[in-house]
Amino acid sequence: MQEYSVAGEPIAVIKIGGSILTKGVSYRRAAKFVRNRRSATPEERLVVVVSAQGGLTDSLEHAARKIAGEPNPSSLDLLWSTGEVRSAALLALHLQALGVSAVALNTHETGLSVPANARGATHVRLNLKRMLSALLEFPVVVVPGFLATDPSNAIVSLGRGGTDLTAILLAEGLSARRCELIKDVPGYFTSDPHRDPSARPIPFLTFEHALELARNGCDLVQKKALEEAARCGLTLVVRSIKNAGPITRIGIAPLAAGAWSERATPAAVAS
């Protein structure tokens, strides 16, 4: 598969979830994380996929149901989209305030589209012309997750946890060298680390094991996103926003030390 590069620099995709973006100051913290990552790997252009601020999606749905009981799905998707677009703009503004050359794209510029009547589907098409144009001008491009457009150009949601899916689809479409999912825990554990202080980190999971956990209720990474990553052989890294601490790699087979950031295909692993 072709690996895109922009201005001679490879592309990496980083997803920052709503559990990280919990309040105003957390956007500055996330911006510092992205700035430091850009400084540590200046050879990479970064696509940063963001969720709505933590709890906002539920709050917007609750407001819609107070008004309409069973809100029209299209209207609800449009209302939901305000959360992700707000996050993208806020993070870009914080990056700019830190001196990082960054831009935010809106849902219609991200390039994800679904067929008619395919709300929440994983059959997503990509048009990366605007994305690549932005990456040519800016080393960091921030985009809203969770959302696509349909043939009528209306906004459509990709299902709860859909920001994970957005990141993986973009990483696949751009042949990104890395795809990191930033969570409020540094990867998978033997039990819930928020409740069990003896929980031990799991450094590597196969796609099969991660999907089994998802089917059993562990929603750390969206099930559709895991299925898509498995289909295209894209190794994922699940980690916290802290640079220190454990991480979990999800892939076909464990990677050699130092190679976790690279795309893993069956052929590459076998060799």
What would you note in describing this structure?
The protein is an alpha/beta fold and 271 residues long. It has a single domain (5-270), classed as Acetylglutamate kinase-like (Carbamate kinase, 3-Layer(aba) Sandwich), CATH 3.40.1160.10. The protein has nine helices and 13 strands. The protein has helices at residues 24-40, 56-68, 73-97, 107-110, 129-137, 162-173, 207-215, 223-232, 266-270; strands at 5-6, 9-16, 45-50, 102-104, 112-113, 125-126, 140-144, 147-149, 155-157, 178-182, 204-206, 236-239, 248-251. Strands 1, 2, 3, 4, 7, 10, 11, 12 and 13 form a nine-stranded mixed sheet that branches. A two-stranded antiparallel ribbon has the order 5-6. The protein has a two-stranded antiparallel sheet with strand order 8-9. Strand 8 (147-149) and strand 9 (155-157) form a beta hairpin. Helix 2 runs antiparallel to helix 3, helix 6 packs parallel to helix 8 (223-232) and helix 7 packs antiparallel against helix 8. The radius of gyration is 18 Å and the shape is globular. Mean pLDDT is 88; it is low at 255-271.
